[in-house]
Design a protein that fits this description.
579 residues, mainly beta, Immunoglobulin-like, six-stranded mixed sheet, five-stranded antiparallel sheet, 4% helix
Length: 579
């Protein structure tokens, strides 16, 4: 799967946060319902609030869920522990009991629940028990309390980190931060072992908004090497106390500094955006594979970023020893429709035991692509403004580097765009938007002729007359899975739609695939698909005594967007599939 560069990931993230609140109303459908029972230590649990929240597995709707908590529907259990969530629009939901100090006894949670029009999803049951507590204090090197410091937990005993925590994580981040005494107390945790740490930014947006000095990621008991961290044992109904962390004055990391300069005349580049990401040396001849500092699933998240001053200078503090990659782009890549004006080769560097300075990132004025974005749809009401604000993202692959570079620009209200600062090579274009409708790419034209494959760009070339033709991604695959055999505890089933429209595209696997959880009743719904051919696959990872094995079933379908495509798949748990 292709990964967006740290710079491009950051720009897409900022774009997403800017446009997220501006959604359009979605088509109303006949509502359905979800019913089930909640038990506490095996007995009916009365007065437990159960919440159904719209699922956001679609990457283009990720931030929508962050801004739409009001869309959640709640119900309260009766004396028999029964609940019923009513008036649910057809779609996918996450269902969770709201019980801060309790945990679910079953680690195989329901995942996404699919609600069809006018139907009921039944038997969505939960078994709860009392959770455990971790509490301690965070201090600086002088022993003074560190206020508002984020605490991170890493479970060691569960295959699914999200399932390893209890109800606590659903009640905001307040309990994960220290108070005015430097004290934290995290409750509602599943029994098991945890790695506790402080000094890690929870996400790149928090790092961007925070003005606090960056701290070195430190683990209990006050070590910066995770391999030396001491696991904390959590027991149901009990507290693990004195889990204290102290930041060290001798391990603050190192300063990395340098300049961004024009590769031809060595003049400084002011207001350039610079980002670094953790790497590890692999392969032959110094090849480097980019990884994510601190792990995680968000490919391309930068370890840190800043902008250059009027002398082209940049500076990063608190960088730990390791191998890193530096990238630079124009700040104009996000502001306005012009995109970047230059490109630069990634600069690899290593931090050992001293500060690293005099790093020069050489950039070059790149090629440009300009044109217009249009909508092709049978619905006359469809227009660009129905997508909200729109961005074009490109990947550029040349003949000498297997790792593509990236670029982006914001599309103007009239559909005009310009992608600048591009390296020479083969360019693939993909639309991205946040809104009630997701854009799908039908084709790219140059001077009225459809471009087959990628668009060839020469050094410093200015290409005009490009027409990017989009269609609303309104296609839906509605599926049902029949299980042959017994699904063991801990097994999960997912469904994926893999686009076959352009399998050679550099974006194949980035925007072309969508996957969702299969409900406990065997149904799934994959939405926001561009018309075309898709391979639908359902798969399960089944645990066993000799390790886990993969089981899957596939079917190819054609999506038109006019009406949902129904798929029936049989998952034979006796078979094994290599995925």
């Amino acid at each position: 799967m292709r990964k967006l560069s740290p710079i491009t990931f950051l720009l897409v993230l900022l774009f997403t946060f800017q446009v997220a609140p501006s959604y359009l109303a979605q088509t109303q459908k006949e509502p359905g319902s979800i019913t089930g029972r909640v038990k506490l230590d095996g007995k009916p649990a009365k007065g437990i609030t159960v919440i159904a929240s719209p699922s956001v597995t679609d990457p283009a709707r990720m931030v929508e869920g962050m801004f739409s908590s009001s869309a959640s529907i709640k119900a309260t259990t009766d004396a028999d522990g029964l609940y019923k969530l009513e008036a649910l629009p057809a779609g996918k939901y996450r269902v969770t009991p709201s019980a801060p100090a309790l945990v679910t006894a079953d680690t195989n949670l329901h995942g996404e629940i699919t609600v069809d029009e006018g139907s009921a999803a039944e038997g969505i049951d939960f078994s709860l028990s009392l959770g455990g507590v971790i509490t301690g204090k965070v201090t600086d090197s002088d022993g003074r309390p560190v206020i508002g410091e984020r605490i991170s937990l890493k479970p060691l005993d569960k295959a699914d980190p999200a399932a390893a925590s209890g109800m606590a994580a659903m009640f905001g981040n307040r309990m994960y931060a220290t108070d005015d005494r430097g004290v934290y107390r995290i409750f509602g945790l599943r029994p098991g072992r945890y790695i506790v740490s402080a000094g890690k930014d929870p996400d790149p947006m928090s790092a961007f908004l925070s003005q606090r000095p960056k701290k070195v990621h430190t683990f209990y008991p006050s070590v910066t090497d995770e391999t030396r961290a001491k696991p904390v044992q959590v027991t149901a109904g009990l507290e693990a106390t004195a889990v204290d962390i102290q930041f060290s004055s001798t391990e603050k990391g190192f300063i990395v500094s340098g300049r961004v300069v024009d590769g031809e005349n060595k003049t400084p580049i002011a207001n350039a955006m610079v980002a670094y990401s953790k790497t590890q040396a692999t392969g032959k001849d110094g090849d480097v594979q980019v990884s994510i500092e601190g792990g995680g699933e968000l490919s391309g998240v930068p370890g840190g970023f800043t902008t250059t001053n009027d002398k082209g200078e940049f500076r990063f503090a608190a960088v730990l020893p390791g191998h890193y990659k530096l990238e630079a782009t124009s700040i104009g890549a996000f502001a306005g429709t012009g995109g970047s004006q230059f490109y630069g080769e990634p600069l690899m560097f290593e931090v050992q035991s001293t500060n690293v300075d005099k790093l020069d990132i050489k950039v070059h004025r790149g090629a440009g692509i300009s044109g217009i974005v249009v909508i092709e749809s049978a619905d006359a009401r469809d227009s660009l403004d129905r997508f909200g604000q729109l961005m074009l993202i490109v990947m550029v692959k040349d003949d000498t580097n297997n790792s593509p570079s990236t670029g982006n620009c914001v599309v103007g209200a009239d559909g005009s765009f310009r992608l600048g600062g591009l390296k020479p090579g083969k360019v693939t274009i993909q639309p991205f938007a946040m809104g009630a409708r997701r854009p799908g790419l039908l084709r790219v034209e140059r001077n009225g002729v459809e471009v087959q494959g990628a668009l060839e760009v020469q050094p410093n070339e200015e290409i005009s007359g490009i027409r990017v033709v989009l269609s609303p991604a309104t296609g839906v695959i509605r599926g049902r899975v029949t299980i042959q055999g017994t699904l063991q505890p801990g097994a999960k089933i997912r469904a994926q739609a893999r686009s076959r429209n352009d399998e050679t595209s550099e974006f194949a696997g980035v925007f072309g695939n969508q996957s969702v959880d299969v409900s406990s009743n065997g149904s799934f719904l994959i939405e926001n698909l561009t018309p075309g051919s898709y391979e639908v696959e359902v798969f399960a990872t089944v645990p066993g005594q000799r390790g886990s094995r993969n089981v899957s079933a596939k079917q190819t379908v054609t999506v038109t967007g006019d009406s949902p495509v129904d798929v029936d798949l049989v998952l034979d748990l006796a078979k094994t599939t290599d995925r």
